[in-house]
């Protein structure tokens, strides 16, 4: 299934069909979904070049400053480097999240960036956290210009998926979203734990206030 976003000229690949092999960046949060999506991309013939992670600001050597994020999972962030270096054996790139959830509209609009009417920047000059993802992937592409795609573990969050597609479109990357509405949550969880062979560990339980 090849989907075309109505907001951006971008290719989004689902899990059902395999197209030409692409070299890709895996966006990893450290959670089971992004790991399983990476495995699905590899299984569909794509070549993993490196992994990327957005991390909360490090207050000191032992503590991370975790602000509420609409976009990124930050629980367990300190374990991601070990996951990649010891288990996946590819280069690992990380950037601290300097932005905040400024633009919380369902669809992310980047057309005002750099103008006096920038809807993705607060009065104190802090940009939206989505721009941290853009800068991280831009840095990686300078070192790996052969990369043509990026994978993510988005399942049901349109908010998250459209923002990843926005960044991918601006960098001329295809978005690999193999878990996007793949099946019901229970079936998908069984697939991740059984077929994916992933040993998931609960690190935090949270809910909206």
Account of the protein in words:
The chain has 209 residues and is of the alpha/beta class. 28% of the residues lie in helices and 17% in strands. It has five helices and nine strands. The protein has helices at residues 32-43, 80-88, 130-143, 158-170, 185-195; strands at 2-4, 11-13, 23-27, 47-55, 57-58, 64-65, 92-96, 149-151, 174-176. The strands form two sheets. It has a seven-stranded mixed sheet, sandwiched between helices. Helix 3 (130-143) packs parallel to helix 4. The longest helix has 14 residues, at 130-143. The relative contact order is 0.21. Residues 1-18 have low confidence and may be disordered.
Provide keyphrases for this structure:
209 residues, seven-stranded mixed sheet, disordered N terminus
Short characterization:
The protein has five helices and nine strands, in the order βββαβββαβαβαβα.
Structural class: alpha/beta
The string of secondary-structure elements, in order, is EEEHEEEHEHEHEH
Helix tally? 5
Order of the strands making up the biggest sheet: 1-2-9-8-3-4-7
How many strands appear in the DSSP assignment? Answer: 9
Instruction: Evaluate the radius of gyration.
Output: 17 Å
Portion in helices:
25-40%
Query: End-to-end span in angstroms?
Result: 37 Å
Task: Kindly report the average pLDDT value.
Answer: 78
Low-confidence stretches: 1-18
Overall 3D geometry?
globular
Describe the largest sheet.
Answer: 7 strands, mixed
In percent terms, what proportion of residues is strand? 15-25%
